[in-house]
Predict the structure.
Amino acid sequence: MPESKAEKTCIFRVGYALPTRKTDAFMVEPFITYAKQRDIEFIPIDTTKPLTEQGPFDCIIHKLYGHEWNHNLEHFFNTNPNATIIDRPSAIQRLHNRISMLEPIAQLNIPNINIPNQLLIQDFDSFKNIQTADQTIYTTNQTLTRLTFPLIAKPLLADGSTNAHNMSLVLNHAGLTKGLKLDPPMVLQQFVNHGGVIFKVYVAGEYVKCVKRSSLPDVSSEMMEKMELEYPCGVMSFSQISSAVIAGDDAWDGDKKSEKPKMPEPEFVVEVASGLREALGLHLFNFDMIKDDKSDGHLVVDINYFPGYEKLPLYESVMVDFFLDVKKSQEEKKMMMENENKNVDDHDPTQA
């Protein structure tokens, strides 16, 4: 007996607009096939055409930026209010700035979570406000900020460009005034010894997964002295640091007997992830967290939008479950609106 239209399963259509590299890594055939088995269909978006002329789409995922694309999304949403855009450009935008991306951490009111001290350098004139006392730099430009060498210098913009990943370890004041290869605007962030381990926390809706990865090694005072001799310019690029670690440079061996930081408690990770999800207004992101070796606290050092979920084990099921949750949320919202409209009609005297 043929299946009636009412009995047919509703296909959830997800349009995607991703950079080529992201598409090649994320939209692989096993993922697409598995999603189709769960009634999710992925549809590539032609970014040269209006979204309203494509689809239909129940949901759109994207990692593209620019005024025209944002306008295209906004127009689509205005004409398709029941569709879900993951995520809204206005929410993603704050992650493109390394100052604004970390601001919500202070608003979470969660014990033992914070960010490293950091200082915004808008232009070359900003260096004039920096003063040095021994191995400490400070500025009284607006509020007193104290940083101790070594520092991490990062471009202010975290927009996915090649330059956004050009980071350096600043060893001394000479590195700020003579050797720094990064041009302002940039952020000087306090380097904190953290056992050479970074915790990457992936968030996809309600899903939270914490994984441990290698990070920059700890820096002792002896290491600092050696590096300053080897790098008289006072600055090391991250690529130089990686090469030194791979080559087994004694300066990076550290205390081999020291214990690596343990994974943070799952409840703590979920609490931070949930707080950030609400504060940022985002569905898909990850944040990098380190354990401060001088305290019980953890520090969030970076937040990224739509990270490499494909690096997670069984990411196909994780992401399909995420889209099924979006579908369920849409259905519940639709049902609630229908019930509200029905109640209005039932109480409308003109319908009597």
